[in-house]
Amino acid sequence: MRKFREDNDYSINDGPIKVSAKIRNGHTGSIKVELNDETVILVLSGDDVVEEYIGTKNEIISSDEEPELYIRTKVNRASDHPKAMVSITIHDGEENTLYELNESFTDEEGTVHNKVKYETYFDMS
Amino acid sequence: MKKLLVLFLIITGAASIKAQDSLKFNDLVAPENPGFQILGISPQNIFRPGDTKALGTYFLNNVDDGSGLIKDVAVEVTPYWLTKRPDLSFKEYFGLVPSKSKNRFFEDVKQTFVLSLATTDYESTTDSITGRSWGFGFRTMLLRGTPRVAERIQLLEQLRQQDFVSEIYSDVVEELEEGNLNNRQAVLEVFSSKFDIYVNNPNLVVNFEKEQVEYLKSATLEYLRENLPNSIPEITSFVEEKEENTGDAIIVKIREESLVRKGLQVQLSGASSINIPNNDFEAVRGGNYGLWLTVSHPISKKGDLQFAGLARYLGSFENIGATNTDIGFSLSQTKKNYSLSGEFIYRSFEEEFSTFDISGQSITAINKDNSYRFTANLQVKITGDTNLNFSAGKDFDSKITTDSNIIALVGVNFDLFRNQFLKF
Question: ipTM value of the model?
Answer without folding.
Answer: 0.96
